[in-house]
Structure formats: C-alpha cells, structure tokens
Amino acid sequence: MSETTVAEAIDRIYASLQADNADLDQHIAVLKAALAREGLKEAIFDPAKLVQNNRQGRKLMQAYFRQRGVTVKFES
C-alpha cells in the first residue's frame, strides 16, 4: 500500500468537510504525516472548495488544524 501524498490528503479533507467533518481528525493526521514525508511546512487549500468560504470559516479552519500541528494557508 502506497503512502498518501499531500495532494491526496488535501482532497480527502475537502471530501470530509463536505460530509459534515466525517473522520476529519484522521485525515488531518494523514496530512500531517504526508507533509513531514515531503518536507513541507504548510498545507495550501483552495478557499473556493471550502464549505464556509468566509473569513470566519477560514480562521476557524486554521485554528483547528493548528491545534493538530498543521499550518494552513489559502490560495489567493
């Protein structure tokens, strides 16, 4: 079984967010491991794919992920 890439982990997080945060913590852990393997410091998300694409929703997402050890940035 191959290890998940950062892009695959981010896609799974988008799907989890669409599914009312189902297994979100598990997907964040997978993303954190993928970031470490690829030597990256932060995950880049497309705000257009978020359920709550407003400032409050983005800040809440950043805080939640930061508590779990993942830095989140958003594409411009």
Name some characteristics of this structure.
76 residues; mainly alpha; two-stranded parallel sheet; 11% strand
Word description of this protein:
- This protein has 76 residues and is mainly alpha-helical.
- 54% of the residues lie in helices and 11% in strands.
- The protein has a two-stranded parallel sheet.
- Strand 1, helix 3 and strand 2 form a beta-alpha-beta unit.
- The longest helix has 15 residues.
- The mean pLDDT is 95.
> Given the structure, what is the number of helices?
3
Beta percentage is 5-15%
Report the end-to-end length measured between terminal Cα atoms: 34 Å
SS elements, strand count:
2
Helix content: 40-55%
Q: For the largest beta sheet, what order do the strands appear in spatially?
A: 1-2
Largest sheet: 2 strands, parallel
Chain oligomer state: single chain
Topology as H/E string? HHEHE
Name the shape in a single word.
globular
Segments where pLDDT lies below 50 for 5+ residues? none
Mean pLDDT: 95
The whole-angstrom Rg is: 12 Å
SSE topology sketch:
Elements: H1 6-18, H2 24-38, E1 42-45, H3 55-67, E2 71-74
Parallel strand pairs: 1-2
In short:
The chain starts with 5 loop residues before the first helix and ends with a strand. It has 76 residues and is mainly alpha-helical.
